[in-house]
């Protein structure tokens, strides 16, 4: 029966979410269930019964008049939506996770890039400092290159923002279950990332209380701080890849259609960004942050301070997404 119910959901997915359509859907489900039970009682196998039920009741065009939804079907035919398949959904989630990981890795490279110059400053060697500066520029270049490369790879999914799309019930339901399944794992990774950022100052505090050595206080301490912050920010960014992709997919179903009435879609809809301006801004958010970080750092050379932009940017993005989610729920 589960196959029949999923098939029914796909039949009605793009129809308007109106009382007449919901009534017709309920009536058709009852008819399909009665026919299925009748066939099973006659000795048909489950697969045979499902095939007969779908062949008899699986064409809405033929049943539209008797169900009283002919006008609704005509409206839908003029406004078809691209259906995102289960395979495409899984691929998008995987590539989104990879993209977030690459962005997080790039941010880690940006934050730890000045560590070499800080370490070499303790040896008072012009040659070592020159090598450290070259290493810094290489790490920044690699980070920027990784972000650009990953962003280009994600361009194949731009149709999700530009073309009206929809998910069938089975895909939507699986994505919602996956989101719930990995919620604890995401929370742990987020907590670990925040913990790394919080404890990043600990080495500086400990060293300052134990010694007055310039090398330990002004070289090892700041270097350890940057490494811990870099790891923390990387984990904060990377852990959101799966969740962001799933919420985006769950937000594809039109709120005005039956598919928008799926419980899984309703639960995930809050994070869907509807404003074109906000959506465009969020697509270039980390690129903008990277540009600000690099400009600020190269103009001031305060690399030991400019890293603070990354945890601040992560908090700001979370705040923006929370506000968008609350606004989306209020508008419903």
Largest sheet: 2 strands, parallel
Intertermini distance? 32 Å
The mean pLDDT is: 78
Number of domains: 2
Q: What percent of residues adopt helix (DSSP H or I)?
A: over 70%
Spell the H/E element sequence.
HHHHHEHHHHEHHHHHHHHHH
> Over all CA atoms, what is the radius of gyration?
27 Å
Question: What strand line-up does the widest sheet have?
Answer: 1-2
**What is the approximate shape?**
elongated
Question: Care to describe what's here?
Answer:
By secondary structure, this protein is mainly α. It has two domains: 2-77; 84-331, no CATH class. The chain contains 19 helices and two strands. A two-stranded parallel sheet has the order 1-2. The longest helix has 28 residues, at 126-153. The chain is elongated, with a radius of gyration of 27 Å.
Which helices and strands, and how do they pair?
Blueprint: H1 2-12, H2 19-41, H3 46-57, H4 60-67, H5 70-77, E1 82-83, H6 86-112, H7 115-121, H8 126-153, H9 159-162, E2 165-166, H10 169-181, H11 183-199, H12 202-210, H13 214-238, H14 241-250, H15 263-268, H16 276-283, H17 285-300, H18 303-306, H19 309-331
Parallel strand pairs: 1-2
Helix pairs in contact: 1-2, 2-3, 6-8, 6-13, 6-14, 7-8, 7-13, 10-14, 11-13, 12-13, 17-19
């Amino acid at each position: 029966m589960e196959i029949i119910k999923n098939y029914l959901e796909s039949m009605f997915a793009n129809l308007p979410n109106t009382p007449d359509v919901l009534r017709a859907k309920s009536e058709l489900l009852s008819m399909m269930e009665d026919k299925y039970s009748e066939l099973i009682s006659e000795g048909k196998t489950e697969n045979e019964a499902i095939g007969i039920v779908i062949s008899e009741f699986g064409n809405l065009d033929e049943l539209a008049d008797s169900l009283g939804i002919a006008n609704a079907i005509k409206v839908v035919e003029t406004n078809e939506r691209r259906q995102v398949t289960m395979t495409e959904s899984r691929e998008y989630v995987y590539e989104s996770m990879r993209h977030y990981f690459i962005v997080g890795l790039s941010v880690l490279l940006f934050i730890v890039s000045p560590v070499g110059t800080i370490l070499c400053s303790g040896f008072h060697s012009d040659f070592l400092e020159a090598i450290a500066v070259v290493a810094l520029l290489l790490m920044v270049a690699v980070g920027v290159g990784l972000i650009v490369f990953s962003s280009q790879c994600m361009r194949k999914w731009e149709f999700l923002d530009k073309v009206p799309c929809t998910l069938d019930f089975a895909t939507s339901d699986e994505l919602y279950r996956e989101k719930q399944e990995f919620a604890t794992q995401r929370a742990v990774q987020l907590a670990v990332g925040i913990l790394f950022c919080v404890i990043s100052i600990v080495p500086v505090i400990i060293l300052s209380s134990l010694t007055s050595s310039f090398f330990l206080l002004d070289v090892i301490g700041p270097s350890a701080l940057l490494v811990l912050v870099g790891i923390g920010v990387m984990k904060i960014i990377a852990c959101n890849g799966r969740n962001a992709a799933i919420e985006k997919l769950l937000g594809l179903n039109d709120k005005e259609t039956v598919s928008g009435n799926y419980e899984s879609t309703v639960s995930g809809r809050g994070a869907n960004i509807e404003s074109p301006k906000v959506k465009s801004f969020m697509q270039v958010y980390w690129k903008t942050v990277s540009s600000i970080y690099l400009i600020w750092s190269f103009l001031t050379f305060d690399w030991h301070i400019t890293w603070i932009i990354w945890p601040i940017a992560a908090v700001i993005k979370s705040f923006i997404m929370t506000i968008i989610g609350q606004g989306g729920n209020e508008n419903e």
